[in-house]
Q: What sequence folds into this?
């Protein structure tokens, strides 16, 4: 295996061309049309983290300009450079520079554009009009609702979807095989479940697990700092069966052995409540989900982890007795 953290694998194995992108077929098809015609509008890429938004922008620029595309693309991370001065100076200066010989425009890529200030967005709105003949803007946002309407109306909208399990697992296998990593297929499937369709997160988990040794289910949960779902399910069912003291002992074991915060445990409980492994009536799931939401709010507001989680287990024990859970 190559030196594990000299280069993050998520960057090393990023697709270089639109042809290498999977799971976003409709989006790729539309972007290829822009490459073919050598023209495109301003673009807004929206969707969850790790679904290929930034990669698609780089792949589009690569296919338009070729190997040295970066000299014709200005990339800014709007979460770091989010003020009005960046828009007025850097973007304005780049927009005025020379265009490439074969393509009549350059590209300004604004990553995490939903973090831009309102003033910066207003300034950007005007620049998009003034320099539209020589510059195209690609805005990337996890939350497009934070982009002001005048900018949204100037862009073609592309919504990215979470990646499918088979595509994520196949890519993880490809990376592991290329890096000489010993792995279990079940561990790769576990990585997908944890990453929830976020390819960047999945690759980083794989790399961290590979640094320990063989990639197994145990090492995956170890590097991400989560409890095994089976242990969480056992705690939930023990509480629902009315054995509060045993459930609380299991809770403390999870918090101490795995070093989990209250929020981490609540999120795992929420995930397991809706899994097929927990056999409870749908009405009970509704009640539990409602109470979990209340407990999570209290934790976010600063309440004590131990007290709130103990209260959750106590409530589950009372509910289990009412429902007659065996």
A:
């Amino acid at each position: 295996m190559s030196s594990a953290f000299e280069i993050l694998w998520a960057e090393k194995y990023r697709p270089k061309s639109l042809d290498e992108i999977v799971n976003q077929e409709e989006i790729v098809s539309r972007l290829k049309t822009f490459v073919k015609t050598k023209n495109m509008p301003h673009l807004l890429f929206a969707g969850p983290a790790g679904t290929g938004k930034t990669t698609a922008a780089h792949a589009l620029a690569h296919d338009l300009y070729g190997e040295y595309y970066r000299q014709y693309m200005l990339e800014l991370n709007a979460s770091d450079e989010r003020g009005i001065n960046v828009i007025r100076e850097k973007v304005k200066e780049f927009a005025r520079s020379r265009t490439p010989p074969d393509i009549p425009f350059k590209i300004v890529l604004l990553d995490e554009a939903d973090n831009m200030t309102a003033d910066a967005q207003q300034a950007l709105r005007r620049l998009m009009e003034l320099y539209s003949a020589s510059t195209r803007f690609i805005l990337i946002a996890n939350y497009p609702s934070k982009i002001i309407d005048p900018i949204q109306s100037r862009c073609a909208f592309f919504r990215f979807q979470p990646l499918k399990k088979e595509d994520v697992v196949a890519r993880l296998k490809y990376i592991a095989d290329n890096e000489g990593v010993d792995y279990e297929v079940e561990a790769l499937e576990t990585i997908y479940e944890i990453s929830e369709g976020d390819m960047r997160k999945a690759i980083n988990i794989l790399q961290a697990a590979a640094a320990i040794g063989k990639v197994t289910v145990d090492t995956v949960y170890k590097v991400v700092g989560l409890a095994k779902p089976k242990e969480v399910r056992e705690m939930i069912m023990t509480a629902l069966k009315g054995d509060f003291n045993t459930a609380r002992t299991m809770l403390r074991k999870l918090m101490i052995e795995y070093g989990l915060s209250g929020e981490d445990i609540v999120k795992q409980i929420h995930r397991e409540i809706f899994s097929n492994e927990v056999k409870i009536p749908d009405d009970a799931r509704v009640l539990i989900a409602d109470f979990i939401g209340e407990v999570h709010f209290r934790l976010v507001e600063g309440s004590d982890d131990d007290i709130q989680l103990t209260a959750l287990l106590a409530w589950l024990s009372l509910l289990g007795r009412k429902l007659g859970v065996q």
Summary: The beta strands are 42-46, 73-77, 106-111, 135-141, 155-159. Residues 1-6 have pLDDT under 50 and may be disordered. DSSP finds 15 helices and five strands in the chain.
